[in-house]
From TrEMBL:
InterPro entries: Ergot_Alk_Oxidoreductase, NAD(P)-bd_dom_sf, NmrA-like. Residues 11-284 form the NmrA-like domain. Gene3D superfamilies: NAD(P)-binding Rossmann-like Domain (3.40.50.720), UDP-galactose 4-epimerase, domain 1 (3.90.25.10). SUPFAM superfamilies: NAD(P)-binding Rossmann-fold domains. This is Putative nucleoside-diphosphate sugar epimerase. It comes from Candidatus Nitrososphaera evergladensis SR1.
Length: 306
């Protein structure tokens, strides 16, 4: 397959101030590429701009603005940012998904790496099913547009949301059973795979790639590893589904989003979740939970991993 890499290539990065987008942008910049970094907030982009990125302030819902951001780009790193505040999250995802796909088509971007989810499955209800729809939407783009969907499992960074509960009570609480083995991935591994694909540009057609993290980890094991890293006893507590929904709603998450998330955990417990691809060297990524726990400890202790 031809390698279409050329110098002076411009990349547009959606969610450039986020977990994955920031690292994608940094890795492209480090390889001498032009990066158009998209965010709603100039302050969030300051560190990337200092490294040479072109800031592009736009809302992900604004198709004309996205079209402008994507025009002239050889490739786009695309994602639908989480919006926990959206009352109707499925419509929000569809609206953003249409804006992204429409802008990619209008700007004739030849290459797209799309952050999807292992939960992107046609049989999934709620927003996980919508991630599948977004894959389909991008797959319907003209043949000249090559797309890879990255399908990662649960992010290790999700545990950062437990910092307050650990500080207050020494617990990590979810409805997931303590001992089931779950693939978990560090967001830097997703970003590195995205950056590799974006730099090589040797994919063609429409395809998907599952990423399973370094190994499967149970919630009880995750709590122990985090406890060791912060030098504190951290217990994992399995909470009832209804209690978890209540906690999420109290934290400002709309009820249907809370129910959808909790439904995913229920299916994990019941073994009826998405059938997993077998672990291979191709879908295994390098960062271990122990390494992530060092980053967790830095944020726990200092509020930042830098
Ligand atoms: N968490 C998991 O376990 C998991 C698992 C599988 C897949 N996923 C998927 O991963 C994706 C999240 O990736 P991530 O963690 O890298 O993202 P993230 O850290 O949550 O970052 C989201 C980015 O999007 C930007 N953004 C948010 N709303 C925007 C808007 N209206 N207009 C323009 N920009 C906006 C934010 O920038 P500003 O605030 O600077 O605008 C931020 O840079 C989601 O699609 C999720 O479904 C998550």
């Amino acid at each position: 397959m031809a390698n279409n890499k050329d110098n002076g290539t411009t990349y547009a990065v959606v969610g450039a101030s986020g977990n994955t987008g920031r690292i994608v942008a940094e890795q492209l910049l480090a390889s001498g590429k032009n990066v158009r970094a998209i965010s709603r907030n100039a302050d969030h982009l300051k560190a990337l701009v200092d490294k040479g990125a072109e800031p592009f302030i736009a809302s992900i819902e604004d198709k004309p603005a996205l079209t402008k951001a994507f025009t002239g780009a050889r490739a786009v790193y695309s994602m639908i940012p989480p919006n926990m505040a959206a009352v109707d999250r499925t419509s929000y995802i569809d609206k953003v998904g249409e804006a992204l796909a429409g802008a990619i088509a209008e700007a004739h971007v030849p290459y797209v790496v799309n952050l999807s989810s292992m939960a992107a499955n046609k049989d999934e209800q709620g927003f996980q099913g919508r991630m599948y729809e977004q894959e389909q939407r991008l797959n319907r783009l003209p043949d000249a547009i090559n797309v890879v969907h990255l399908r990662p499992p649960m992010f290790m960074e999700n545990f950062l949301a437990s910092i307050n509960a650990i500080k207050k009570a020494g617990v990590i609480a979810y409805p997931i059973k303590p001992d089931i083995a779950i693939p978990m991935i560090a967001t830097q591994d997703i970003a590195s795979e995205a950056a590799r694909l974006l730099l090589d540009l040797n994919f063609s057609g429409k395809s998907a790639k599952t990423l399973l993290g370094q190994r499967d980890v149970s919630m009880a094991e995750a709590a122990k590893i985090i406890g060791r890293a912060i030098n504190k006893d951290v217990r994992y507590v399995q909470v009832p589904y209804d209690e978890h929904i209540k906690t999420l709603v109290q934290a400002g998450i709309p009820l249907d989003v809370a129910r959808t998330l909790t439904g995913l955990y229920r299916r994990m417990n019941e073994g009826t979740g998405i059938p997993l691809e077998k672990r291979t060297s191709e879908n295994t990524t390098p960062t271990s939970f122990e390494q992530f726990a060092q980053k967790f400890a830095a944020i726990y202790n200092n509020g930042s991993s830098n």
